[in-house]
Design goal:
This protein is an alpha+beta fold. 15% of the residues lie in helices and 44% in strands. Strands 6, 7, 11, 12, 13, 14 and 16 form a seven-stranded antiparallel β-sheet that branches. It is elongated. The protein binds calcium ion. Calcium ion binds next to loops.
Amino acid sequence: MQNYRQFVAVVMMFFLFLSSCRTNDTRKIEAEAAVAFEAWAVEESVPYKEVSYQVIEGDETFVTVRVTAMLRESAAAAWLEKQADIECRLVGEQWQCDSYFAFSPTETGSDFVMQEIAADKPVTASAMYAYNSGHAFRPYSIVDGQTVELHCDKATEDGNSYWLLPDHQTGWVQVDLQRPYKIAKLRWLNTHNGRCGDRATTKFHIALSKTGLFTGEETVIYDGIMPFTPSPQFEEFVLSAPIEAQYARFYVDEYHNWGGGLNEFEIYEEQGEQRR
Ligand SMILES: [Ca+2]
């Protein structure tokens, strides 16, 4: 019983401290945490919004502040609610807070996982560039997970891993996911036709379909341009709400020099549940 009373007394003192801390120093501490967070976000180029700060424990000279914010990895990515706990300490009369923030998803936020579902699935195309009987830049190369563009005078059989359209043609390449998925994100990597640098897609659009007909039932989810570069990088698009579809088609609408193509096409399903 003695221990229990001591425990209750300690707990009450702790909450009394917290309430006094809140009324006296909390505003100052949270303001310092905000200064530290904003400096970190600028330094790390992290997009953010809806930031809140809360002193969750501590004493007169050392406290823990929980920072909760909506963050995303890039301008095209989805916002996720995340939190990080940092420590702030009183140095002289000035509160100073940690300058590093290790964010993780909040317990009440969404907890979706993006699963890639296009790898090794069947791929077809309107046409492909092929020459010298057997050398072909095959449609399947867009889901093989390889980004090699070593040669431009040899086809996929010789180590290259990208699909090309024949000379001076527009067209499309399409993945059959073999069953419907709730598609939430797409990533793609343009080709530059290896060291030749004479083929690439420069204008395109992406459509999803449940049936694979693409005769008007499809949903165009993205259209864009890709100025030619000899070192293309992955680009991505996150849908504002997932769309159920079995087929994803990438249309080459304009091309660089001899023709268009694509190196990789990734399709992501959103898995998991919202925990709110
Ligand atoms: Ca590839």
